[in-house]
Amino acid sequence: MKLFKYQLILIVLVIGGLAFKPVQAQKNGQPNMVVILVDDHAFEAISAYGGYLKDYAKTPNIDRIAREGMRFDAFACNNSICSPSRASIVTGQYSHKNGVEQLNGTINAGSPQYPDLLQKAGYQTWLVGKWHLENTPKGYEKYMTVKGQGTYFNPVFDGSEGHWERDGYSTDVYTDIAMDWLQKRDKNKPFLLSLQFKAPHHEYGHAKRYDNLLAGVEIPEPPTLYEDVRNSNSNLKKEFLRNSKFHMVHGSDGTGYYHRHLNDPEPDAMGKINADTDAEKISAAYQHQIHKYIRCIAGNDDNVKRVLDYLDAEGIAENTIVIYTSDQGYWLGQHGFYDKRLILETSMRMPFLIRYPKLIKQGTINNDLCMNVDIAPTLLELAGVEIPESMQGNSLVPMLNGKPAPKNWRKSQFYNYWQAPFHYGIRTERFTYVKIKDHAPELFDNKIDPNQENNVAANSKYKKTIAKLEKELQGQIETIDIKTEELPGMAPKN
To answer: How far, in Å, CA of 152 to CA of 64, rounded?
Structure first.
């Protein structure tokens, strides 16, 4: 009888140990984290995404994160502009909750920030590079950040370690600082490294070693490069053209990319200086842009290699989460635009690659509707840290485990933009539905029109679809708790 009793106790202990093993592993062996957040890196310019630039914008080291981890193909930001997206990433909250709706904003004092929670859980926490928020970084043991956008060359830093002026190309210098901190770390503690490149933000500055990259090579154009936005049936595009300078030729200031860069010196001089027609100017501007852009992201890729090689050499790659992501997508000539800001692809969609060998099966692809607000709760759960109720995002851990998204996972991605053209809306697996200040709602059927050339809201066959999308939009508004007067363009007039 006693033997049976001891056997029963042993079975219970074994089963219990198996049941609680994942929790114990997180608690006793918390993963290290390297979050590489860059500025304006379009997913089309990461070769792992297999797009039309894959043979030109080659990123073998960034691709390694996807190859050895998971690539997210439907990841999006809730506000496609630098400061707001960065605030959403760090807080897990939408812009109206964290207080950062436009550039250079200040995160609300009451908003949670995942680095702060990780630091309180025993993590060493470091930040270097572009911050672009008015707050002092919270929860970082060491931080050295540049002012605003920073410069591509000879960056100047201020932060917990004082005032630094460093010579060199910014992406290299940021990584130098990060590597120094990694080498001096306390090896008995887990760490969070936030490595935040300025690149490839306009004007796409690149190190001299890339001067001849793709020199003389004509790079493929996006299919909507020559779209006649002025005669589009989309007021969203027309208002963006009217209110911004971000067109290859027809900027709001009477110029565009072509004119801004016409006198750039070698090695990035404009190709067709004597272009006469709009089409010739757009072609020249695009080739100029994409050559500089690819030379710029080459620096990102080289420095990602330095980080990955270090993790391998230290033998800690297995227990280190590595993320490569951008604060938003970026126009690489789509609709004749550069920059970002709109709910349209590829402005709203952003790259998100994550490797964590202990959890993620190599080479997996996710197509669920995930967002920048999901990053903070995901990292907290992976660290075994409680997720604050005030975070509005959802943890991606179920999908990282290779499981289907939970049944209650979002059916749409909510979007806000608080500058002209003021607009908000949702993106679903098939449609983009948008409300624009002073204009009728617009609808894009991304299945039959993946390049979003045609607003089909006036087409009667979409009447029921619009009704369903309106219901979904209102449901999102309720879910994220945004008041009508808080929506872009909806504030009461004085």
So the answer is: 26
Look at residues 57, 61, 44 and name the one whose alpha carbon lies nearest to residue 324. 61
Structure-block tokens of residue 450: 């993946």
Evaluate if residue 396 carries a pLDDT over 50: yes
Q: Mean pLDDT across the stretch 107-131?
A: 98
Predicted pLDDT of residue 67:
98
> Is-cis flag, bond preceding 364, omega within 30?
no
| Domain spanning 414-486, CATH class | alpha beta
As given in the structure block, the two tokens for residue 142 are: 């060491």
Per-residue pLDDT at 18 exceeds 90: no
Each domain of the chain, given as residue ranges in start order, spans 30-207+290-400, 414-486
Q: What is the CA radius of gyration of the chain?
A: 23
Backbone angles phi, psi at 35, to 5 degrees: -110, 105
Buried b (16+ CB within 10 A) or exposed e, 49-60: bebebbebbbbe
Which long-range contacts (C-beta less than 8 Å, at least 24 apart) are formed by 161-169? 169/205, 169/206, 169/207, 169/299
pTM: 0.93
Count Cβ atoms below 10 Å from residue 27 Cβ, excluding itself: 13
Under the banding of pLDDT at 50, 70 and 90, the label for residue 492 is: confident
The DSSP-derived string for 323-359 is EEEESS--EESGGGBEE--SSSTTTSB--EEEE-TTT
The residue type found at 260 is: R
Instruction: Name the CATH topology of 30-207+290-400.
Output: Alkaline Phosphatase, subunit A (3.40.720)
Q: For residue 408, is pLDDT > 70?
A: yes
Element (H, E) at 35: strand 32-38
CB 446 within 8 A of CB 431: yes
> Which of 62, 93, 99, 58 lies closest to 78 in space, CA to CA?
93
Residue 162 CA neighbour count, 13 Å, CB half: 4
Query: Residue 415: left if φ>0, alpha if ψ -120 to 50, beta else—which one?
Result: beta
Name the pairing type of β-strands 70-72 and 352-355.
antiparallel
Task: List, in order, residues 6 or more apart from 127 with CB less than 8 Å away.
Answer: 115, 137, 140, 142, 143, 144, 145, 159, 194, 196
**Cα 315–chain centre separation:** 28
Q: Peptide bond before 318: cis, by omega within 30 degrees of 0?
A: no
Residue 125's H or E segment, with its range, is strand 124-130
Question: Which residue type does 333 have?
Answer: G
| Widest Cα–Cα separation across the chain | 97
Contact 408, 414 (CB under 8 A): no
Within 13 Å and on the Cβ side, how many CA atoms surround 78? 31
Please tell me the predicted confidence (pLDDT) of residue 494: 56
